[in-house]
Amino acid sequence: VNISELNVLKVKIDRLEITHASILELFPEKDFEAEFEVVEDFRDKAIRIETKARRIITCQDNVSTILNSTHSHSAIINSTENVVIEKRRFKLPKLELRKFDGDVKEWLYFWSQFEKIHDDSSIEDSDKFQYLLQSTVEGSRAREVIESFPPTGDNYPKAIDYLKTRFGCNDLQVEVYVRELLKLVLKNANSNFCTNNLCALYDNLEQQIRALETLGVTTDKSAALLYPLVESCMPEDFLRARQRSSNFDLGSDSKKRLDSLLKF
């Protein structure tokens, strides 16, 4: 059925009604009522047929629109996939989950990987629980915490919340990395620095500061605290050389002084 055929049918029905009207005028009064009922019955059937045909045409149009949209969408997806496949001509190495043993310093490394499993809505919580077990070191404090919960889907979010409270608490993380900075200060107190030691010190300082920034303790907010700690880690010869430098500015704010110290 198409709209052209329906229009032809409508024209024929209209002509037929005009013809019936002309014929009815010629009928005697006694036969008029019976013939009129026949004509009305025919008109009702014609209207039902026309309505049904229009409904079918509308449905066909909707289906065609959906199919065209689906084909276009599929073509876009296929095109994108082909581009990705075309660009990637090497095999990516297999990722291995980093196992967590309960060391607070290792939490950020562990959670940055496991969070992908945690946020994956296609994985059942009962399966996530098993992945969580496999992602902890056997016999460690972290494994003991997980095993204290029955391995069910309902207990998975409880186990995660407890792990975060026990090992991933933001304040606890900040304390750990500040303590690491203090250890560097104490280590420097009685150490003789050489060039290699100074390079290693810079690497350690950068590591602790980046970890603190990940936890929200940025140099913008805490430079006044971090600057004296970082400065105390440096050997005296290094500080004297820096003070003689033309770039040394004692009057600048803590953030600028910290950046300058780390870049010197």
Automatic annotation (TrEMBL):
<protein>
    <submittedName>
        <fullName>Uncharacterized protein</fullName>
    </submittedName>
</protein>
<dbReference type="InterPro" id="IPR005312">
    <property type="entry name" value="DUF1759"/>
</dbReference>
<dbReference type="Pfam" id="PF03564">
    <property type="entry name" value="DUF1759"/>
</dbReference>
